[in-house]
Automatic annotation (TrEMBL):
<dbReference type="InterPro" id="IPR036291">
    <property type="entry name" value="NAD(P)-bd_dom_sf"/>
</dbReference>
<dbReference type="Pfam" id="PF01210">
    <property type="entry name" value="NAD_Gly3P_dh_N"/>
</dbReference>
<dbReference type="InterPro" id="IPR008927">
    <property type="entry name" value="6-PGluconate_DH-like_C_sf"/>
</dbReference>
<dbReference type="InterPro" id="IPR003421">
    <property type="entry name" value="Opine_DH"/>
</dbReference>
<dbReference type="InterPro" id="IPR011128">
    <property type="entry name" value="G3P_DH_NAD-dep_N"/>
</dbReference>
<feature type="domain" description="Opine dehydrogenase">
    <location>
        <begin position="177"/>
        <end position="333"/>
    </location>
</feature>
<keyword id="KW-0560">Oxidoreductase</keyword>
<dbReference type="InterPro" id="IPR013328">
    <property type="entry name" value="6PGD_dom2"/>
</dbReference>
<feature type="domain" description="Glycerol-3-phosphate dehydrogenase NAD-dependent N-terminal">
    <location>
        <begin position="2"/>
        <end position="98"/>
    </location>
</feature>
<dbReference type="Pfam" id="PF02317">
    <property type="entry name" value="Octopine_DH"/>
</dbReference>
<dbReference type="InterPro" id="IPR051729">
    <property type="entry name" value="Opine/Lysopine_DH"/>
</dbReference>
<protein>
    <submittedName>
        <fullName>NAD/NADP octopine/nopaline dehydrogenase family protein</fullName>
    </submittedName>
</protein>
Amino acid sequence: MKVTIIGGGNIGTLMAAEYADKGHHVTLYTSKPERWSQKIKVYNAEEELLKTAVLHKITNNMEEALADAEYVWGVTPAHTFENMAEKMLPYVTSKHKIGIVPGTGGAEFAFYQFIQKGCTFIGFQRVHSVARLKEYGHSVYELGRKAELRIGVIPASMTQMICNEVAAVLEMPCVPLDNYLSVTLTPSNPILHTTRLYTMFKNYREGMKYPRNFLFYEEWDDASSQMLIDCDQELQTLCDTIPLDLTSVASLQDYYESHSVRAMTEKITSIKAFKGLTSPMKKAVDGDGWIPDWESRYFTADFPYGLKIIKDLAVLFHVATPHIDEVYNWYEQVAKQPHHKVFSLTITKEQLLRLYR
């Protein structure tokens, strides 16, 4: 099978190695092909080599990357979707199966023309494994595979077939979701990251500095857990209101098996795969202290292409979301990045429901 991976970050590198290891023809599209080796090594957390896979081709030519590909996996942040789609559109046909990993961030709206062309459109509800680059273009860590992978597809009639094919490559159970909206509303980064950032930086003012870069998860606190739970409950109310089966949009309280503020804090601070991860911060210009890094994907993707989607859908279905509004409105006021793209829902309720059926 000919497979193309677009994006050479953590998950893109791992997926390229996984497909190549199974004997598939893998082409990797990247803006920096000169930094890549065709041999990709995968290690575990103990530095043990798990596999060495050989890629077929590495290119920065989109036409070349998409030629004859059966599967095309886009593994880039949500704020890059529109640019990616624009580059891909001239070379995409109805034969392509286009997948986004993870499939959140309003992907189905950015790639709406692809769906109209007759492409099969796929989204993972969450990534199938935690991954971290060891050496860019050469090696990657596989730090924790999930017990199963949930997949949404447009059209929904193709879901079981896609699940079967992906399961064979990733060697894990793949569960078909009833609709792609179950992917779009997954409250991982759009709520997990945004509520933490709001709680950390809500008192930030220009000119302030922090003494160090905080550990994002290991120093998670009860205030962050409270806001996470409040926003998570509002999302569940939205899911109950939309006339589709969205029972697969698991509450973060269920996902982390933590139904109180203290339990949530203890859970998140203890997750091994999150150990050592710092916050989206950068050194102040004078080198003295730390400030928020507004250019981090935590800000450029998880607010305008994560929480904003939930907010827009809540408006469309007349669901009150005061805590989600509080977090998103803070971002709008404090980030002050006019060049950041922001998701905007431009279809009617009827069109939206028809898209997922």
